[in-house]
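Sample 3 of the quickstart, ligand zinc ion:
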Amino acid sequence: MRKILYKGGELDLEYDVVIGLEVHVELSTKTKMYCGCKNIFGGRVNSNCCEICLGMPGTLPTVNKKAVEYAIKAGLAFGCTINKKTSFARKNYFYPDLPKSYQISQANFPLCVGGFVEILLDEGRKTKKVNLRQIHMEEDAGKLIHDESLGLTLVDYNRAGVPLIEIVSMPDLESAQEVKTYLETIRNTLMCLGVSDCRMQEGSMRCDVNISLKPKGSEVLGTRCEIKNVGSFNGAFKAVECEINRQKGILNAGGQIEQITMRWDESKNDNVIMREKESADDYRYFEEPDLPILEIDGAEIERIKKTIPELPNAKLARLMQDYGIVYADANLLVSNLDKCGVFESVVKLAKCAPNKVANWILGDVSRILNEKNIELKDSKLNVRNFSQMLELIEEGKISNTAGKTVLEEIMEEDIAPLEVIEKNGLAQINDEEALKAIAAEVLSTNPQISELYNKGKTNILGFAVGQCMKLSKGQGNPVIFQKIVSDLIMRG
Ligand SMILES: [Zn+2]
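Result:
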């Protein structure tokens, strides 16, 4: 192994990676954090703001009760201690998207402290607790729109004052994969709690990543660099990989890490530097004089605790245990509650193996949704029609191929699968004589099938069955075709 000199001593070129995350999540309350403006994504620019979220002098904020409830719910789900007395603080900085020139956040007395996020690694065979420092409440800023054609920067304050929680982790994460899994676990959990839609593409969940490297086993932390505002799981994965490699490169060459702040640039597929040699931010925090200390009733916390549903990790373990489906499928189902709900209902209703139901949902149903760019709830698929379709396949009344056609239609409108089959002539032909005639035709027009099969290329059978299915317009029973084709070849 190559060796390098490190602070006078000889060390291996191996490093411990130390990563801490701050995850910002917009809460899906009806109104904003400190005023009554609507909390919705988009809308005509500057149509969803008032004198309070615009920071006009003399206006007074009030705390959104629902936002506090949602933040407590998140805290309880992650095992945090809920502070019975919590207060708000002004975080002062100037930026054009921040009309008040301060954000109302929390500093000394955050709502939730401690707790942890348990992440599943190695296909669920390993778990790791990522400890949390705190979860606090704050408000979002507005949005700057850089208009190249006008040569102007415009500002939209619709987002100013949208309630946020910031989930601050301890530096317990050690790799890009752990970061991605951690973010996915947070998203799945918050969606499951119903406190946020966690739409990263709409900016309702984003994170700041702090990364440093230190020689393996060293007690002394290295200089950390920050990547701001990462807005996708894959972006986070790639940004962390890039930064680890950059720091390794510098350290391996005997250099020193300078403290810098970067942002992930998706188009460049790299982190770009925003600020160099930064001293610690001084936000001049002070307690918000316009908001009293918030006292939270223990009974209220107990009431919220009772509203917490089965959480993703428990759900994932139960899906694997009860239905015998593999980790990858269970994980995909857990990340989409609508699909998971349909899965569980169909498994209970239809006489069809759970793994087959999962395959249909994660395969063709998801493919059709992707093609149409819609969510499951926007399609017409219901449990009754879907279950009937699966049973018709199980009973051999339609082929898998015909099933796909039926699926397309029952996702488009609420129509009985039998009606679709009748309308499109999709009923499966199980009559051996009829199938034999088709198979014979395929073998006579493709003499190479028999030749290759007799030379030992038995996998040509798949091609032959495919041709039979084609000739029968997808209506032949492929299992019977398979048997007939091999019988016919054997008989020569
Ligand atoms: Zn407002």
